Amino acid sequence: KSGIITLDPGYKNTGSCESAITYLDGEQGILRYRGYTIEELAEKADFLEVAYLLIFGELPTKSQLEKFHDDIRDQAVVDEEMKKILDSFPKSAHPMGVLSSLTSALIAFNPSSVNVSSDEDMYRAIVKLMAKFPVLVAWTLRKKSGLPLDYGDDTLGYVENIAKMMFKKPNKEYKKNDIVINALDKLLILHADHEQNCSTSTVRIVGSSHAGLFASISAGISALWGPLHGGANQAVIEMLEGIKADGGDTKKYMAKAKDKDDPFRLMGFGHRVYKNFDPRARIIKKAADEVLGDLGVVDPVLDIAKGLEKEALEDQYFVDRKLYPNVDFYSGIIYRALGIPTEMFTVMFALGRLPGWIAQWREMRLRNEPIGRPRQVYIGETQRPFADIEKR
Ligand code: SDX
């Protein structure tokens, strides 16, 4: 019952892995994708560039990026039958459940994406998913809002086209350096990968059985949905709204968060790895001020969030447990300012994490890693004889 197991020599311990994609230092609050700091990438790169970097290991040249984007554009059509599957969901369906189902349903219309062994086959499956997943995200949002579906415009940039499919405003509004595009680019980059978190580990272990890329990503979406993981960005806004409705009494909620008998936790706070500021939270907090200022949006929950953060950083309970704001604490405030419904926040997290999941799946397959099979510490009954029902 020590919690420590000794594996037979040579057992392929698949509980953890080697990876060359993302580096985290939880004590120092460092995050790097393929050696580049998240601060530089969020400031200087765009999301498709970062997706290429994560998946293929190097920042693309101009021609490599153009070819990648062209190959994606060639695959952007989603089978009309998929709309019938989307329409079969009740309006009340949570968008994460819809997205996970639609991603799995894509397999039926793209059977060649399943049995991939060569890097070429993997590339074809990857560009199909990079092309069709944003369409599914946009369709899920528009279905939730009761709006007509849009196929986008392949003359636009990758993120510009996503914005057009989601918000459907005239093309003229979606160009480089537009406030909305810059905010989306930055948020998607900040969510793109994060080492072996719950949903990425899910993608790797499902992929290790060779179930295929789309099935692995569908499983990752389900793992991300949980409020302890990606679902926290929705839970943060619901928490802040609750505090606002309750008169903005942050001290009352700080006390609840520390009360062992109270299930309430400060959503958007704490992290398994970061025992310092989540570097993404610093960038998103700054971006929230900029985006809301640029858009002329005044959101009272931003002030409540800042008040909570200040109190928590000065509170001994939080200081002792090294609890800091994480990526989910401020992101919802920006999504809200962009007009994205609260229930869609975790879908936006999945959209950002897609290239990271793809990169981790590709790395695992190219390294021919064995099927994932973690072991356990058995704490159950020792052997005992069967008892007939009359004697139980
Ligand atoms: C993401 O792994 C990743 O990289 C994930 C992610 C990514 O990019 O993929 O970064 C994205 O999922 C961010 C996390 C989003 N989740 C939340 O914001 C939910 C709220 N946070 C907590 O549920 C919690 O902090 C976790 C789940 C994030 C981490 O949980 P751990 O590592 O299992 O820590 P723990 O629950 O053991 O907490 C240690 C102590 C406990 O107190 P003690 O029993 O030691 O007295 O800290 C307390 C906890 O009660 N604690 C909190 C708290 N988080 C931890 N107390 C109040 N509020 C909180 N938010």
From TrEMBL:
Entry annotated with the keyword Transferase: yes
CDD domains xref list: EcCS_like (cd06114)
PROSITE patterns the UniProt entry points to: CITRATE_SYNTHASE
GO terms assigned for molecular function: citrate synthase activity
GO CC terms in record: cytoplasm
Pathway given in the UniProt record: Carbohydrate metabolism; tricarboxylic acid cycle; isocitrate from oxaloacetate: step 1/2
Keyword Acyltransferase appears in the UniProt entry: yes
Active site (record annotation): 271, 328
Gene Ontology biological process terms in this record: tricarboxylic acid cycle
Keyword list, A-Z: Acyltransferase, Transferase, Tricarboxylic acid cycle
Catalytic activity line of the entry: oxaloacetate + acetyl-CoA + H2O = citrate + CoA + H(+)
Pfam families assigned to the protein according to its UniProt record, in alphabetical order: Citrate_synt
Family, as annotated: Belongs to the citrate synthase family.
Protein name: Citrate synthase
